[in-house]
C-alpha cells in the first residue's frame, strides 16, 4: 500500500518526505479494520486537517467545524448577504460513510472506524446501490437516538434505538461538499433519511426563522444549521435554550472532572437566547437552570458518599455478533472504562447493555466527602 499512498497524498500537495515525517511524529497513524487498511490524521499536515482519512482509493477530508452564532438576528446579518438554506441540527454524533476496498465503513469525527455505526448503517442506507452508482461518494450524517455509545442526549422524536440522518455529501479527494441543490437531489433519488429541511431563507425572513426556532425549542430539539448558497459565505449553527439546559443537565453528573467553560458557555448562550426571544427572565427558567446544574451533582455526591460508583448505562443493538467484540475493542482503545452487563439475541438484533464507569468524578467527590482538604 505504501507507494499507492504516496500517490494519493501527492494530490493534496504532500511530498513523500513530509508524509514519512508525519508518520514518525504520529501526526498520521496507520489503522486496520477487518482487513481494510487506512491512515488516520491526528494533527494537521498540509491540506489535511485532523480527522482526515487516507486510503489507497483516495482521501476522505475532515468534516469542517461549524461556527456558532449566539444572537440569531445579528449573526445572520453578519454572515449572510445571499440566501441560505436552513436544516435542523440533530443532537447525535457525526459520521462519514464511504466504501473502501469494497467495504462500507462509518468513520467518526476523529477518523476511527466506529464498529457500531458500521454495523447499523445498512439499516438506513441502500448502500450497495448508492456506492455502485456514485463511486467515491461520502455520505455525512448524524447517528442519533437514546441507544448509542457516545451521546446521552437525543432528538425527542427518536424514542428508542438509533436513526441516521444524512446532512451532507462529499467526494473522495475533494475538500468541499457537493453543492446543496445537487446534494438534495441525490438524497431524494436514493431515499436517504435526512435531517429536517426548512427551505431557503434570506436576511429579510428573520421573523419566520424565529418562529422555526420557537417551535424547535418548544418540542425539545437542538437547533438549526444555516448553509449558504454563495460559496464565499460560511455555514453557521444556532441552538435553542432547551438544548443549553439539557447539555448542562446530562453533563453535570461529571462536573468534578469537566472544564468549567463547558457550563459557562451554555449559561451565556441561554442568557443570549432569552434576551433575544423573550421579553424578560421568567422565574421558571431559574428553577430549570438550578435543577439542571445542581440536581445531577447532588446525585453524584450522594452516590460517592454511599461508596457507589458513578456510571452511565447504555444499550446497543447490533446486527452481527462479531461487531460486538469490535466495539468492545474500540472502546478500550479510546480509553473508555466500561463493562458489558448483558448480551442477548432478540429477533434479528443482538441487544448489548454496557455501563461506562466514571472513576475520576467518583474519586474526586469521595475525597471531598472523606474530609480531605485542598487549596483552590
What would you say this structure looks like, in words?
The structure is a single chain. With 376 residues, the protein is α+β, with helices and mostly antiparallel strands. The chain has twelve helices and 16 strands. A hairpin with a 2-residue loop joins strand 3 (53-55) and strand 4 (58-60).
CATH topology of the domain at 63-89 and 199-239: the name is: Dna Ligase, domain 1
Main sheet overview? 5 strands, mixed
Strand order of the largest sheet: 5-13-12-6-11
Q: How many helical stretches?
A: 12
State the low-pLDDT regions, or none: none
Under CATH at level 1, the class of the domain at 63-89 and 199-239 stands as Alpha Beta
Helix and strand run? HHEEEEEHEEEHHEEHEHEEHHHEHEEH
Tell me the structural class.
alpha+beta
Task: Produce the secondary structure layout.
Layout: H1 2-10, H2 16-24, E1 28-33, E2 36-41, E3 53-55, E4 58-60, E5 67-68, H3 72-79, E6 84-89, E7 93-100, E8 103-108, H4 115-120, H5 127-133, E9 137-144, E10 163-171, H6 180-189, E11 197-201, H7 206-218, E12 223-228, E13 236-239, H8 241-251, H9 260-277, H10 283-305, E14 311-318, H11 321-333, E15 338-346, E16 349-357, H12 359-369
Parallel strand pairs: 5-13
Antiparallel strand pairs: 1-2, 2-3, 3-4, 6-11, 6-12, 7-8, 7-9, 9-10, 12-13, 14-16, 15-16
Helix pairs in contact: 8-9, 8-10, 10-12
